Amino acid sequence: MDSKQENKPHALCMPAPVQGHINPMLKLAKILHSKGFDITFVDTEFNHQRLLRSRGCDSLHGLPSFRFETIPDGLPTPENLDATQDIPSLAKSMDEECLDSFKSVIAKVNVTYSPVTCIVSDFLMGFTLAAAKEFNIPEFLLWTSGAGSLICFDQYPILLEKGLMPIKAPVQGHINPMLKLAKILHSKGFDITFVNTEFNHQRLLRSRGSDSLRGLPSFRFETIPDGLPTPENLDATQDIPSLAKSMDEECLDSFKSVIAKVNVTYSPVTCIVSDFLMGFTLAAAKEFNIPEFLLWTSGAGSLICFDQYPILLEKGLMPIKDQSFIVNGYLDTVLDFVPTMSGIRLKDIPPFIRYSNPGDEYMTHFFMLQFERAKSASAIIFNTCDKLDGDVLDAVSSRYPPCYGIGPLNLLENKIVDETLASLKSNLWKEDSECLSWLDTKAPSSVIYVNFGSITVMTPQQLVEFGWGLAKSNYSFLWIIRPDLVIGESSVLPAELIKETNDRGLLASWCPQEQVLKHPSIGGFLTHSGWNSTIESILSGVPMISWPFFGDQQPNCWVCCNKWGVAMEIDNDVKSDEVRKLVVELMNGEKGNEMRKNVTDLKKKAEEACTSPLGSSMVNLEKIIHLMNASSST
To answer: Domain Glycosyltransferase N-terminal: where (predicted)?
Structure first.
């Protein structure tokens, strides 16, 4: 076949099928492509279709050397094709069902294009390591969050052991960084096959338009089923434990099929880049003898915390004995054994290990499984930089494969990705860009931006408390309220509150967040502390109020508040008066001004890492490229 290039390095990139993991993986793929790699970006079929709907049918038509492949995620197609998939079900399905499909993609790519020389996988897509081993291909893992979050995830075993612990995992927040990483790899010369779940792929298509996933001939999308039934609301967030279970158990075969298909149809897959949570991909990498790189899409500190799970269990600190332990002060227990996280409390550890919600026990052991699998990856990639998380990355590297911070991926993407791929986006909801015109009418630093991300849910009372707190602050606000933000009810604010804030409040269902945060009228960000939101806020020089919901958000919040001094935490039992006080302090108080100075300093450090030729992220990117190239030549 004419398109086959035997001597060219070829990276197969596999993100976790969620927004915040896809973005950095796509960025990395584009960076690798710019360094001479062919890229095959493997996405689940569901997410691939979502991207096509979101961006248009031509949006994923890349270059001949940057292509997309898909594998099924093992879940049934929901009725609402734009709904966020249930994370536990998706994770389980991907881990158990996707390896074979992933290996098939490798086999297909090897035959059709140049052989896959390395796999770059999200840290959570550990099944890809099995494929890398089978195909004798090195695999590099991308940790898409902050390095500190990895350390926190690593505490899960300890929390369980101590009886201190056993909440849900993001989707949108994983897809975003993986897509960014893929675009970066593509810009470095890689062909890309981006594999998404069918459910998320369809959501992207609906959100962005039928042409949105048409990239370049060398940047293509493939999908795999996630194994879950199709929900009635196709835009609803999927249940995280169910999704994790379904993906882990059901997606391997579909993933291997994608590899086989890509190998036959395009150039062979030379590496897999998988989300850290998609550990089933490691089995495909092993089977196809392809190296795999894992992408950790959250903060590095959260990985450290997740990594404590076995220790917490061993020490009997977790799970909690009953629900009273959530409110009796027990979770304020300080942990003295978490590397680089001095003073961190049980409440700051990712809360699955508390076993306080259905599915938590499964999710705890799911994360422990992914961490064990990750040890066979070629490397772990993080969406952070050494100046922000160098101590955490060193700590993680002492227990796992080499760790490389090449972020913030937003900056690398903007610096090196060509315009053709820059338009590829991964939002699973349609963006309301009219809010930017509204912001144009506001004074500098006068608006508080409120967005709790793609997964967070709250009670009707919490919604009202936030609303009245914003109203009483007397500041203008832009508030993103998803249709499924409120548990079991419509996300509607009281009429009197709407009337009270009509002249200074704007509500929208989704927005172009990076543009919003960079708007000069934004003076603060009320956030859930998802890693993508955290990084975007730092890069915009915007201090934060944090209301973490689950997963990596607790350790991300702790890092922002305690290590970096760029955020203030709001109590989970939110009250309007506390919201008012924190908003006023954030926007014009002494602590708010101090946080604004701190976040400006962090912004400069992050920019130096990605814009200077000798910046740590630029240097680490070249190291990753070298590893992938070395893998492709052996």
So the answer is: 13-134
Lowest mean pLDDT among 88-92, 171-175, 307-311, 619-623: 171-175
* Nearest CA among 327, 389, 319, 330 for reference residue 354: 319
Q: What is the H or E stretch that residue 525 is in?
A: strand 522-527
Tokens matching residue 287: 């089977």
CATH class of 433-610: alpha beta
Pick the CATH number of 10-162 from 3.90.1170.20, 3.50.50.60, 3.40.50.2000, 3.20.20.100: 3.40.50.2000
At 632, the pLDDT band (50, 70, 90 cuts) reads: low
Amino acid in position 578: E
Residue 275 β-bridge partners: 295
Decide if 33 is catalytic: no
pTM: 0.73
DSSP letters of 471-503?
HHHT-EEEEE--TT-BTTS-----HHHHHHTTT
Q: Could you say which of 21, 33, 174, 519 is catalytic? A: 174
CA distances from 367 to 128, 151, 153 (A): 15, 13, 8
275 is catalytic: yes
Q: Which two tokens stand for residue 519?
A: 């708007």
Selected residue with higher pLDDT from 255 and 159: 255
Which member of 82, 95, 122, 275 is catalytic? Answer: 275
CA nearest to 57, candidates 44, 73, 42, 68:
68
Fold agreement between 10-162 and 433-610: yes
Contacts of 557 (CB under 8 A, 6+ apart): 348, 529, 546, 548, 567, 569
Instruction: With beta carbons less than 8 A apart as the criterion, state whether 26 and 426 touch.
Output: yes
pLDDT score for 3:
44
Strands in 544-546's sheet, in edge-to-edge order, are 505-508, 476-480, 447-451, 522-527, 544-546, 567-569
Q: Tens digit of pLDDT for each residue in 568-612?
A: 999 889 999 999 999 999 999 999 999 999 999 999 999 999 998
Report pLDDT digits (tens) over 409-436.
999 888 877 766 766 665 656 677 889 9
**Cα dihedral 428, 433, 435, 440 in deg (nearest 10):** 140
222: left (phi over 0), alpha (psi -120 to 50) or beta: beta
* The token pair that represents 94 in the structure block: 């991907």
HSE, CB side, 13 Å, CA atoms: give it for residue 475: 30
- How far apart are the C-alpha atoms of 153 and 618, rounded to whole Å? 27
| Nearest in space to 489 (alpha carbons), one of 463, 465, 469, 468 | 463
Question: Domains of the chain: which residue ranges?
Answer: 10-162, 433-610
The pLDDT tens digits of the residues spanning 124-170 come to 999 999 999 999 999 999 998 888 888 888 877 765 554 333 222 23
Please give the structure tokens belonging to residue 297: 């899409």
Q: What is each CA distance from 37 to 8, 71, 180, 517, 580, in whole angstroms?
A: 7, 22, 16, 33, 51
**Nearest-angstrom CA–CA distance, 530 and 170:** 9
Q: Is the pLDDT of residue 9 over 60?
A: yes
Report the Cα 21 to chain-centroid distance in Å.
3
Written as one string, the DSSP assignment of 591-630 is HHHHHHHHHHHHHHHHHHHHHSTT-HHHHHHHHHHHHHHH
Rounded Cα–Cα distance for residues 375 and 369 (Å): 10
Q: Residue type at 630?
A: A
- When pLDDT is averaged across residues 377-402 and rounded to a whole number, the result is 96
